[in-house]
Design brief:
Bovine Mitochondrial F1-ATPase, ATP Synthase Beta Chain, Chain D, domain3, 52% helix, 90 residues
Length: 90
C-alpha cells in the first residue's frame, strides 16, 4: 500500500511540490522513497552497468530492512543513503 500511495503522491509532488502535501502524506512519501531506494539492490549481474560491486542480500535481511524503514526507525536518514546499499547496516 505504501508504494501504491507513493505513486499517487509522486504525481502530485511533480505538479505542485512536496510542500503541498499534508504532514501524513509527506511522511508516507518520504518513507516510500526510502523503501524504493532500498529495494534497488546492487546485484552481482549489474556490476558491469553500475560500477558498484554486487552484493548478495538474504530475504531475511531485506525484510528486516523494510520493517525498519516502515517503522520510521530510520526517519532521520536521508532517502539517498538507501540507494544501492545492499543490506541495511545503518
Amino acid at each position: 500500500m505504501t508504494l501504491n500511495r507513493y505513486e499517487e503522491l509522486r504525481r502530485i509532488v511533480f505538479i505542485v511540490g512536496i510542500e503541498e502535501l499534508s504532514k501524513e502524506d509527506r511522511i508516507l512519501f518520504e518513507r516510500a522513497r526510502k523503501l524504493r531506494n532500498f529495494l534497488t539492490q546492487p546485484f552481482i549481474t549489474a556490476e558491469v552497468f553500475t560500477g558498484k560491486k554486487g552484493e548478495y542480500v538474504t530475504l531475511d535481511e531485506t525484510l528486516s530492512g523494510c520493517e525498519r524503514i516502515c517503522s520510521d526507525e530510520l526517519a532521520h536518514v536521508p532517502d539517498r543513503d538507501f540507494y544501492m546499499i545492499g543490506a541495511l547496516k545503518i
